[in-house]
Amino acid sequence: MWRTNLKVLAVALIVIGFYTMVAHVIPQLQSEVPEALALTGDVTPEALAAAGERIYSGAGGCVACHGLGTRAPNLVTDQGGEGTIGARCGSRRPGMDCKSYLYESMTNPGAFVVPGFENIMPDMRRQLADDQIWATIAYLQSLGGEVTVTASDYGTSTEAPTGAAPAAAGPALTATTEPLALLREKGCVGCHAIDGAGPPIGPSFDGMGRRLPADQIRRAILLPNADTAKGYEQFAGTMPQTFGQMLSAAQLEAIVQFLAGRR
Amino acid sequence: MTDVVGLLQAAAQAAADTAGGYGHFPGIGARGAVWIAAEVHLMFAAFVLGVPMFAVICELIGIVGKDEKYDKLSKEFTRLLVFAYSATALWGGLLLFFLTTLYPRFWTHMATIFSRSMWVYAGLFFIESFTLYLYYYGWDRWKVGRAKWGHWGLGLLLNVWGTIVMFIANSWLTYMMSPPSGVTAETLPAEVGLWNAIANATWMPINIHRLIGNAVFGGAICGAYAAFRFLAAKTPEERAHYDWMGYVGNFIAISTFIVLPFAGYWLGREIYEYNQQMGITMMGGFMSWLWIVQAVLIGVLFLAANYYLWTGMGRIPGAERFAPYTKWMLLVLVICWIVWATPHTIIATREELAAMGGSHHPFLNVLGVMSAKNTAVNLMILTTFLSFLIYRRANRRPTVAWARTATIIQTAMFAIAAGVVLFYGVYGYFVEAIVRIGFSVYQVLAVLACIIGVSIIDVFLVRGAESRGEIRWGMMPARSQYALFILAVTFTWLMGLMGFARSGIRQHWHVYEVMRDTSADAATPALGEAANMISLCVLIFLGLVAFIFWLGGLAERAGHKAPVALAVPPQPAAGD
After folding, report:
1. Distance (Å) from the C-alpha of residue A97 to the closest C-alpha of chain B?
2. Among B353, B437, B494, B510, which would you mutate to test the A interface (most chain A Cβ atoms within 10 Å of its Cβ)?
3. Domain A45-154 class in CATH
């Protein structure tokens, strides 16, 4: 009988082990918590937009719908020939400026439903704190338009948003010129592989210096849309255009030299 | 850039918010502790709710058909319940303590809204256990005539209590998923109406889904019990009995399992209707890979169940004539399985895109879309149904005059159903997604119609059929029993996985869009980590179940020596 029992045990363990293994070999995606902002009055528009970008493509959940599908209008890229969202937001509704329109889009999406789409977008106030919404708006404006969100929009209260999560989640912004730290801090490694590891959304940083001279790398960072890397047409327009404002000159040079040196 | 984001400030505020909201649990952490307690509790609960359903049905068959065999089976099912019941209560208690000590803020919210239903729940739990004890220990006392019907009524009541208890508990967790739209983060819990909170959007779909799921699960675990006893059996009679019990358990599990997807579709639709974003997160967002894992598990289920049926034909005289077909059925199953488990998702995040290396899976694009998947599943269901049918037919030779015609009609029904499924599967490639979703309804309807139509014909067809020989119960190779174990383990794991899906789509919310999870464990873990937890829960549950099985055997042996001890509850002064 003991032999049978052991066999039964072995079968159970093998089956359980097999399922566990299957669950481990698929891509491991964790659902993140939106990072809490505690904006003070003198935030630069660029920093605001950068914070909004993280919400947009991260825990804000926008890309679940505004992504590659046809569920929702493209925001980062052109939609129906009207340009990116920052370019078209001012002319969507007569008499409504870009900022108000975007705020309405996020907080009362049913008020104006973009033709050809369904009214499925939820009121984002249930998910995001007010300053998180404003940061996202700043980011959307930066996509082809001018950021006009100011401190008076989100208030300067020092109160943490209702859903303050441990802020450790967000990367700290520093003045470092250490290239590897910068690549991590600015989120480049979120799209570009380095040392053979990382996502394939943008071209790998490995051997970049072999393909591009320093001035072209600089240009690619400052004006990502100026020309599109071969084989990455599908992702054209994904690279943020805000790095010019986010990097100090010294930081930009540090990155450029670093990448150009990777042969 | 120090002026940018007052990170420290936010951290301090978060810490202040969190203080008093969460407790600490050593080792696995608060979330791990609650996860394990809740999941193991749920597994036992599913078992003790599922088994009474078919215990009363078996008893009824025994009464009406005057067949001792069914009565004995029903009683055996119930004996497992008595032990499992206390395990359910114990783990429930543990869960309660964990929630109150580790998540006090959340618990206060829930208790404020649901207090009255919680009291009713506790009361019903009492009544349910007493009913169970009466049902089990009264078995041999109320054995004949009107008393037997009264006894059967107890079994029925047991089901009624159990179902209400489950519905109440479901209202709590569905509220966490889909609180009524009027409730927001600003609403005070005391202002939330009890009925309003109970009758939320996903309550009924979950109720139905779980009701069916429990029957499946109960059948699978009983099948494993029978397999366990079959392997340990010493006499041919014992072996015959447990072989038959295993067959019944497997039959219950698989036949109810086939309807489960329909309840699942309904639940999914309600989730989409409630909140598109939640639906998309579930099917296309960070959880989309979960469905691939699910497909792997369900493929194993279909294969194991069919394998069991096919080996089972060895004990049926006349089944040889069907043997050549099994390899083709196996082929269909395997192909469908591969198609179904082929990854394809609408990409949700940059990370996912990166993980998959492009917006579509490079090779398996065509196989991975919805059309192909639905087609595969429906064909698997049809194949399994065919296995059952052959099994049923194996030792009978119909005597009715129209037998040939009927068989031709049945064959045609299969062919038409398969044709419809395939047609819409292929046609699905040529239409818009929105139209394609409608196709799955036609496919499902064709399969259902086939199952119902063929079954009805079959019932009349085998009336008065000649026997090609009795089924030789017990003449089953030992390896077939391992299929039953695989089924039980897989169903248990599947339940853990679906539990993670249901609970995980709330993401970083205790109560979706009402109460945030601000603990350190707020981020929903990736599937690998979840799988570790699920496996741990499954191991704990199955370990305890094995212990219960062993106890069952022990009690029986004791019962053989002194039958009275088990049949009648201790009644001190009953006789004198």
Report:
1. 26
2. B353
3. mainly alpha
